[in-house]
Specification:
Blueprint: E1 2-4, E2 11-15, H1 25-32, E3 37-41, H2 53-66, E4 73-75
Parallel strand pairs: 2-3, 2-4
Antiparallel strand pairs: 1-3
Length: 76
């Protein structure tokens, strides 16, 4: 799941640690959305096998590329 405020400021990227904790970003989106283009990301989960950090990094890199984002501040 991805949320992109589409703002014009620098990009601030929030990655949720675990899906149930996505709600912690709601106040952050409202607060930081006034100054930044806020993007949030809910990582995919798999019960079949672990998803390794390198795969997560690739997911995030691909997402940023798809959104046309070259640089971002990252909060995870």
């Amino acid at each position: 799941m991805v949320y992109d405020s589409g703002g014009d400021g620098e990009v601030l990227f929030f990655a949720s640690v675990m899906p149930p904790f996505d709600v912690i970003h709601v106040p952050n989106i409202k607060y930081f959305g006034k100054r930044f283009r806020v993007v949030t990301y809910r990582r995919r989960e798999s019960v079949a096998r672990p998803i390794y950090p390198a795969e997560r990094a690739d997911e995030i890199r691909n997402l940023l590329n798809a959104l046309g984002i070259d640089r971002a501040h990252f909060c995870g």
